[in-house]
Amino acid sequence: MTLFEKIIAREIPAEILHEDDRCIAIRDIDPQAPFHALVIPKTLIPRLGAASPEQAELLGHLLLTASALARQNGLDESGFRVVINHGEDGGETVPHLHVHVLGGRPMKWPPG
């Protein structure tokens, strides 16, 4: 069971920012920006590259949820970043797809 599955099952506490039948959004415990949330599907998808075409609607829902969180937290005007890590070189630390939503400060390019 992944860390995120334990959070979804309420076995590990987290600050929940949003929840619906398809996903949960929590505040990141190691924030990299003043606002840093994770949008996590309740269905286990190990990483983006493991998603199937049948999960396209869920993937879209995750992005729309990320956008709504940014808007609710006043980031839609100044801007925000959405990040999905894949694999070790991509920065993946939990094998459960999740979308990072970062904002509240200028973002640099290139990242990392």
Structural category: alpha+beta
Question: Total domains, how many?
Answer: 1
CATH-defined topology = HIT family, subunit A
Order of helices and strands: HEEEHEE
Order of the strands making up the biggest sheet:
1-2-3-5-4
By DSSP (H or I, 4+ residues per run), the number of helices equals: 2
Strand portion: 15-25%
Give a written overview of the molecule:
- The chain has one domain: 2-Layer Sandwich (HIT family, subunit A), CATH 3.30.428.10.
- The chain is built from two helices and five strands.
- The chain has a five-stranded antiparallel sheet with strand order 1-2-3-5-4, covered by helices on one side.
- A hairpin with a 7-residue loop joins strand 2 and strand 3.
- The protein starts with a helix and ends in a 9-residue tail after the last strand.
